[in-house]
Amino acid sequence: MEIVTQKDTNVKTHPPKKSLSPWAMARRKFVKNKLAMTSLIFLITVAIVSFLAPYITTADVSRINIGQMSLEPSSDHWLGTDKAGRDVFTRLLYGGRISLLVGLSCTLFVIFLGTLIGSVAGYFGGAVDNILMRFTDLILNFPFLVFVIVINAILFGKVNGLWVLILVISILSWGGIARIVRSKVLAEKENEYITAAISIGCSPAKIIVKHLLPNIMSTIIVQATITFATMIVAETGLSFLGFGVPQEIPSWGNMLNSAVEPDVLQFKSWIWMPPALMITITILSINFIGEGLKDAFNPKSRR
Amino acid sequence: MLKYAFRRILGMIPMLFLISIIVFTLAKLMPGDSLSGEIDPRNTNPQYIQEMREKLGYNDPLPQQYFRWIGNFVQGDFGKSTRFKIEVSEVLSERLPNTIMLGLTSIIITYILAFFMGTYSGRKPYTFGDNLIGGLNYLGLSIPSFVAGVFAIFLFSFTLGWFPSNGSVDIGTTEGTLEYWLSRFHHVLLPALVLGLLSTASYTQFLRNDIIENSRKDFVRTARAKGTPERKIYNVHILRNSVIPLITFLGFDLVAIISGAIITETIFTYPGLGQLFLQSVGTRDYPVLMTLTMLFSFLTLVGNLIADILYGVVDPRIRLD
């Protein structure tokens, strides 16, 4: 008898452990994934260092210095100087700032547009779905690179700047997200809780935002990660070809552009190698984070 | 099957119409005369421009202009290049064989590499070799093609000197000889490898996963129970089932080659359509630019269509929807 009461009191002092929420489970799984965590820490470090660039280096990013052209790495210039005498390390930091910022802004735009169109099409169905999805098909059938370059050629000299680039890239790339969100919404809206929400008179906007989106958030987050990597590739690729970020603003793609000259490519590897490596490692780590997230949100995966 | 393919092709027509309208609108937004290239951009005499515009019908209503343009376009009259002063179709036909060669070589290399890596990985999953291939795949999927191209030129052309870094053929070889074709092949190999990097990685990954999945199926257990040698199980029973779905990637390959060619050909200064596209932006050769835009859009559409139809061939369940 005594033992039983003791057990009872024990239970009272330590209430039964609540089972973890899906988010907490995902977080736990993600933190245990070494590769993904290393990548995340790397990415955060790169972001912080890039955004604190003005406090880290004192060299002037944009001033052309004829006296110090194409210097090899030394204690003065950690990664040497480029053909215009600008410090490569400084430009790498400022370039990271632009590349990450453009990538992030494009991702936010793309996710916003894709989620909006995908969820509206999926929720309402019928004619709305049909029109929106044909529109999505149209966007998906555009060769992305070709159209960005053509639009750039039209806008050349009229409007020029970062925001134009971000808008053009985003408007041409939300199609994939819209399709995925739509198919998820289609599956999710068959559940009873949605019928319940409709029956108590929730407005469609409220149902989509409060009931549907939280349940497909894990898919959106994974897609956002993949999109982030794609957008950084898009920005650096376009800048590399000379159709992205304006030349006077340093970005990783603009810096890599100097590798087009055979002389630089062959003999002055300190000019193009750092941005090339940074692009590759950044994309790689974003992809690892994406894989880690996908794994973490998947209830079937063991780990 | 035929009915399904026919329905898909019919569905493409409104899409093609819409895209052509968009390309036409973009062409109209371009400075100067980007549709026919008949107006000399260096002649700034307003009277001359006015006369030419009247003569070419640029003062007509837009729908009329659109139908005239699309009518000419369908018949192969793409206008005149402002840079080369010859018909756009001639400029294109000069460059087209190079791009086709690049694309074909890239697809062949992709198939061969992916076949060997994929079958090896699928047969011996979770071994050292599989992990190595998996790691390489990861790199192939992550590294952007322009970074890969720059590294490839630096490593294989400049440091090791195995491949030439630019052009499509050595100067001085006469056309038609064996030497000429060998030289062309030598030039195309490195860009083709870079162009096929992404698809090689995805093909390999797909083949590996499909082989692993199939090796757990009942028909494999039956074959084992009957005493079929392990080699025959993998090379005949499983491979047959795993290779077929790969053909669905062919359509996407076409799409990937189009945008890939623009970047790869520019890096390797390979005289194909992709390089021509970027050059025509730089030299403001708008007739060539718009023709290529229309051509690339059309090919992308066809690529997606092929992918759709092949999906229907491989998996008959898709045809129902």
Task: Give an account of the 3D structure.
The complex is a heterodimer of chains A (about 300) and B (about 325). Chain A has 14 helices and no strands. Chain A is mainly alpha-helical and about 300 residues long. Chain A has a single domain, classed as MetI-like fold. The model of chain A has no long low-confidence stretch (mean pLDDT about 85). Chain B is mainly alpha-helical. Chain B folds into two domains: about 70 residues, no CATH class; about 220 residues, MetI-like fold. Chain B contains 13 helices and no strands. Chain B is globular, with a radius of gyration of 24 Å. The chains are: A mainly alpha (about 300), B mainly alpha (about 325). At the A-B interface, helix 6, helix 7, helix 11, helix 13 and helix 14 of A face helix 1, helix 5, helix 6, helix 11 and helix 12 of B.
Strand fraction of chain B = under 5%
Number of strands of chain B: 0
Main pleated sheet of chain A: none
Mean pLDDT score of chain B: 84
The CATH architecture of the largest domain in chain B can be named as: Orthogonal Bundle
CATH fold naming of chain A: MetI-like fold
Largest inter-chain contact set: A-B, 37 and 45 residues
Relevant CATH superfamily of chain A: MetI-like
Assembly type? heterodimer
